[in-house]
User: Which sequence fits this backbone?
């Protein structure tokens, strides 16, 4: 029983325990449910509070932004007001005068008045080469021409001045303040218009203003030197271009007040600002000498069919004054865009515009300044003078050289021009007279590249001369470090390099000037148009290149070239003339040649240098310089020397040696000639004197100096047998 009660209590307790566990479990579940609900509620409340706080923050931020924005806007406003204030003050006080001036310009109509372009005189200061004459220009103010008058005005203008009516009418009816109808008309035409305007009571809208027109009295004379100016009074070529600032002057103007439409304001009158004329120029060019050079150049170019024309340079070696530069063909300065030769006039209609332009550009070119060429044997004067100065040779050492018809340099045989009959033993004088290439090749080798190039530089042959003419070309030489034995050889006798004629004339002027370099010039004076003040353009003298002694030796040998050598066709009766001939190829394998001659006179006091250059002569006379160019040099000198009143060699007061007149020994035997010359204290030199000369029977064929020339005692008379 006891055990059964115990079992019952156990069962009851077990049921209670289970019931309690169930109850506790339910309580736990309920507690968890409540916790979840509480957590959800807390999260919801947190989110809402967070949202509310965010809204509050945004509201506060927005308020702050508005305040900042308002503050910034106020600052910007003050800044703008400050800038505007400063700008207004600057416009008022800083730029007031300028703006007032601009406003005045907008309210005025200006008509230009061209000044008188300066006159260009020749070396005498008397002969006018270029001058500006008074003409007039017609303009219209379309807004000031009434509608009913526009057609009549257009008709009259087109009729008087022979203009296209439609073009004139277009200008007269155009909405503009001013239109140019015609420039540079003569007074007669202008007066015809004035009468019509007066008769028709037209007082405004048509203007007749003073103007100038360039005129060249001698048409083609010195055209490639002078150049020409355009319709706007601007120099376009030559002296006109180089000295444009001196010549052009300052424009004047006629000012008149206008309204907003550009029309005249009545009763305001006109303000006249006078033009300032340009300055005058006096050239070194002598019109007479220029005419002489052009005359003979034209003749020789036509006679010898010089395909590419030619040029002649005449200089005074003492001061570098260019007395003439003639070019053929040339052009008419008064019609610079029209052909001037008969050949061109005939071909002109069939030529294209491009070919016409090319042709005119070639006619305008002063080839003596702008174009280079191979000088040929004339350049041997440079090689010879450098060799004398360096002590490599002397003028008259018999048999110093020997021509065998050619010389081999670095495996290349270079022929003498007379390779078929070699010159044999020669002195330097002989070589220059004979123009023997091998001798000068040998001298070049002895000088060496570096020394030779030093002389090229001293003579100014590696640089432009600086002549006051446009477009001067520079020489074309190999760089010194590129010159080998063969190149040096060809340079030494004047080929395979290029220089301009003005460079060559200037270089030889150094020899004629006693060894001192001078620079060429074309303008010697500038005359102020307002004050008349004369400004001299200075003579530019350079360094001494060779000694006076060696310069005199060169002149003496050059005289032999003209007296007995290749230049004999340049002889001038009564004058001692020196010179050198040249013949060169115009390029390699072109079958074109350049023939040239350079002459100096009088030898005792060189005052004139003449350089004749003929491009590609194809006449019956051939292309040798001594044949076609030398005679031209003689012709020019035969007129220039008397014109300059150089009828005989000038005596120098400081020289106390006695002068004697050279006798005539031509036709006498060597023995007879020697006695006559010695009696007068003159020395004798026999050209190419052979061994075992029979002096009693050998006859003198030629002599230099010629009979009648006065020379000092001790002078050498060269005779040819």
Assistant:
């Amino acid at each position: 029983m006891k055990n059964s009660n115990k079992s019952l209590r156990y069962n009851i307790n077990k049921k209670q325990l289970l019931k309690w566990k169930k109850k506790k479990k339910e309580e736990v579940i309920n507690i968890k449910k409540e916790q979840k609900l509480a957590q959800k509620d807390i999260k919801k409340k947190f989110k809402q509070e967070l949202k509310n706080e965010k809204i509050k923050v945004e509201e506060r931020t927005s308020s702050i932004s508005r305040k900042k924005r308002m503050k910034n806007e106020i600052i910007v406003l003050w800044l703008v007001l400050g800038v505007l204030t400063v700008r207004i003050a600057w416009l008022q006080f800083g730029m007031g005068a300028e703006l007032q001036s601009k406003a005045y310009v907008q309210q005025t109509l200006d008509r230009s008045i061209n000044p008188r372009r300066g006159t260009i005189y020749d070396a005498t200061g008397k002969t006018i080469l270029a001058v500006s004459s008074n003409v007039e220009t017609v303009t219209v103010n379309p807004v000031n021409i009434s509608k009913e008058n526009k057609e009549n005005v257009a008709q009259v203008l087109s009729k008087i001045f022979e203009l296209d009516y439609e073009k004139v009418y277009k200008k007269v009816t155009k909405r503009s303040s001013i239109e140019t109808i015609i420039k540079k008309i003569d007074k007669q035409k202008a007066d015809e218009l004035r009468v019509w305007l007066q008769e028709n009571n037209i007082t405004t809208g048509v203007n007749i203003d003073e103007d100038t027109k360039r005129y060249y009295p001698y048409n083609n004379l010195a055209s490639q030197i002078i150049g020409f100016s355009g319709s706007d009074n601007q120099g376009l070529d030559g002296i006109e271009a180089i000295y444009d600032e001196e010549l052009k002057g300052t424009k004047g103007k006629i000012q008149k007040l206008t309204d907003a439409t550009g029309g005249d304001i009545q009763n305001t009158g006109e303000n006249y600002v006078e033009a300032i004329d340009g300055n005058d120029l006096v050239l070194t060019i002598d019109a007479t000498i220029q005419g002489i050079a052009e005359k003979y150049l034209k003749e020789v170019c036509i006679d010898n069919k010089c395909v590419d024309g030619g040029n002649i340079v005449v200089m005074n070696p003492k001061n570098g004054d260019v007395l003439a530069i003639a070019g053929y063909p040339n052009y008419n300065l008064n019609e610079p865009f029209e052909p001037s030769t008969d050949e061109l006039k005939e071909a002109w209609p069939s030529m294209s515009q491009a070919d016409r332009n090319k042709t005119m550009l070639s006619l305008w070119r002063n080839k003596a300044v702008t174009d280079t060429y191979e000088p040929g044997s004339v350049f041997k004067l440079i090689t010879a003078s450098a060799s004398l100065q360096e002590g490599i040779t002397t003028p008259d050492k018999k048999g110093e050289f020997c021509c065998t018809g050619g010389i081999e340099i670095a495996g290349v045989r270079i022929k003498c021009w007379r390779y078929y009959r070699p010159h044999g033993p020669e002195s330097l004088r002989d070589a220059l007279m004979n123009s023997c290439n091998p001798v000068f090749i040998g001298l070049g080798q002895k000088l060496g590249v570096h020394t030779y190039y030093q002389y090229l530089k001293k003579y100014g042959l590696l640089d432009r001369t600086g002549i006051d003419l446009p477009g001067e070309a520079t020489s074309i030489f190999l760089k010194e470090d590129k010159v080998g034995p063969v190149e040096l050889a060809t340079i030494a006798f004047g080929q395979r390099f290029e220089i301009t004629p003005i460079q060559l004339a200037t270089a030889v002027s150094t020899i004629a000037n006693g060894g001192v370099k001078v620079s060429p010039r074309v303008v010697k004076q500038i005359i102020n148009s307002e004050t008349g003040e004369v400004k001299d353009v200075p003579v530019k003298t350079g360094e001494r290149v060779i000694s006076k002694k060696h310069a005199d030796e060169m002149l003496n040998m050059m005289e032999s070239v003209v007296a007995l050598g290749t230049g004999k066709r340049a002889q001038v009766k009564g004058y001692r003339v020196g010179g050198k001939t040249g013949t060169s190829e115009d390029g390699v394998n072109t079958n074109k040649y350049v023939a040239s001659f350079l002459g100096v006179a009088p030898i005792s006091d060189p005052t004139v240098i003449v350089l004749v250059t003929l491009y590609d002569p194809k006449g019956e006379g051939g292309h040798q310089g001594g044949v076609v160019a030398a005679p031209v040099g003689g012709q020019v000198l035969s007129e220039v020397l008397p014109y300059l009143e150089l009828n005989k060699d000038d005596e120098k007061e400081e020289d106390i040696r006695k002068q004697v007149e050279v006798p005539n020994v031509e036709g006498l035997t060597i023995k007879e000639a020697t006695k006559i010359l010695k009696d007068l204290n003159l020395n004798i030199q026999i050209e190419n004197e052979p061994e075992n000369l029979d002096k009693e029977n050998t006859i003198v064929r030629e002599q230099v100096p010629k009979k009648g020339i006065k020379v000092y005692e001790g002078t050498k008379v060269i005779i040819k047998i």
